[in-house]
Each structure stands twice: as structure tokens, then as C-alpha cells.
Design a protein that fits this description.
The chain is of the alpha/beta class and 305 residues long. The protein folds into two domains: 93 residues, no CATH class; 203 residues, Vaccinia Virus protein VP39 (Rossmann fold, 3-Layer(aba) Sandwich). Helix content is 33%, strand content 15%. A seven-stranded mixed sheet has the order 5-4-3-6-7-9-8, with helices on one face. Strands 1-2 form a two-stranded antiparallel sheet. Strand 3, helix 7 and strand 4 form a beta-alpha-beta unit. Helix 2 runs parallel beside helix 4.
Amino acid sequence: MSAALHAFNDTHELLTLRDWLRFSVSAFNEAELSFGHGSDNAYDEAAYLILHTLHLPLDTLEPFLDTRITARERQALLDLLRRRVEQRVPAAYLTHEAWLGEFHFYVDERVIVPRSFIAELLRDGLAPWVEEPENVISVLDLCTGSGCLALLAAHSFPNAEVDAVDLSEDALAVAEHNVDDYGLGDRVRLVQSDLFAALDGERYDIILSNPPYVDAESVDALPPEYLHEPELALGSGADGLDATREIIAHAADHLHPGGLLIVEIGHNRAALEAAYPELPFIWLQVAAGDEFVFLLKREDLPGGR
């Protein structure tokens, strides 16, 4: 047993929130946890998990640092932290919530933890590519998972009806939970489909997709935290582009003239450009750079003219 696991035997010595925060950061670092499901470091994740478990405001740590933890709270923290360290369960699955900006969503292990760069682009209504968001009347979120991008699209385009599509019935059940939470059942339609298979005749102003895009080599090397996520939502063939190829091949058939396709592809820009040297990909700027999300106009897609 590692020293990090042995340390859980000494938690009776931890009295204050500050004590538990220091202990948690030490335990996370010693266990060499992997992050990336809402936070990128041990301190932020420990603070989030402690504040959430103690039902405290997630943005207010300082006033509570020297408050004492009750016996019941101590047990709740111990149970949660042990699962994070011993089972390597991502924080979002422990708390059943994930955040994209100011929006929060229910999540569990039926869906991938939301972390799409497309969410950043939707904050500004896809400007400058969409000049008048109120004129967008139809959006497709392909591979919707928890429904997060569909709901953000409904917020960004107030006059749009949004189709949220996923192959997984389990994922759509989680998406339904989130659609109900936001009261958008009249504008967001959930559709079970293998990409475009069940959308014959449907056309949209915008198609968004954060499909599976992890290549086979990277899937084999994923840290244990990522193995809690649905395998269907991660890998996409040897080079990670199987789903993206299908989307590019058929998107024009489902876009109105002048429509836009926006797809997230992880670290696959070079492979995608090599596979489609004739396509004029527009790479959109997000916080991490300009190689993760591409845009294509309908007229530039195969069969779009």
C-alpha cells in the first residue's frame, strides 16, 4: 500500500478545512493522480471537492479555512477522497456535476465529462462567423453526450431549435436530465442516431460536433481516470478520425446553403489536413490555441456545391 493510502489512517488528526485541504493536495500529488476533468492541478481539485462536500460556495474558500470539521463531515470527506485516490474516479463523477463557464450540468459515468473547446466559441455566438445569432433557427449537436453543447447552443441562439444526437441511450438519458434542468424541452430534441443515420431529410444552419477523436495508441496510454469514461466516447479508430471522416462526408447533405460545420478533433490537426489537403479548413482560436476546432462552410464540403 502506498504512503498516500496509508495516510487515510491518520485523518483523525485533521481538524480544520485548512488541514483537510493540505492533506488532500499531498495525497493527490503522492498518488500521482491525473487531472483534466474540470481542473488541471491537485490544489484546485482538492478545494473544489472539499467545498462541494461541505455544501459551501465553490468560489469562497478563505473565510472557511480555519473552521473545524464535524465528525459527519469528516467521514463524508474521507469517503470521497478515498474514492478519488484509490479508485481514480474523476471529480465530476464523484460530485455528479461539471461546469462549462457559468453553466453546470449533471454527469455520471454514462457520459464523457464535458470539456469541449466549442463551449468557448458559443459564448460569443460563434462570432464573427455568425453575424446575427437571432437569425439562426436550427442547430445540430452531433455526439451530444450530456447535452451540454446543445444547451449552450440553445442559449446562444435564442430562436433556434436544437437537435441533440447520440448513439448511446444511456448518454441521452443524462442529456434528458440536463434538458429538463434548464427547462428547454420545447427547443431541444433528443435523437438516438449513429451520427446522421436517423436524420434523413433534416437540414440545419449550424452543425456542432465534439465526436470521439482519440487515436488507438493514445487510448492504450490513457491514465486510469479516463477509463471511467465510456469507451464509445473516446476512441475513433487507428488515427482517431473515423467519426470525423463520416461527419465530413455527409455534413453537406444536412446543412442549409451557407451553413457551418464546426468540429473538435483534439490533437489531430496535422493528420486531418494530410487526409484532406483539398479542404479549406478554418481553425478557430480557443484558449489552448488554433489547432483543436475547425470550421467548414457547406459550400466547401464534399457535395456542398
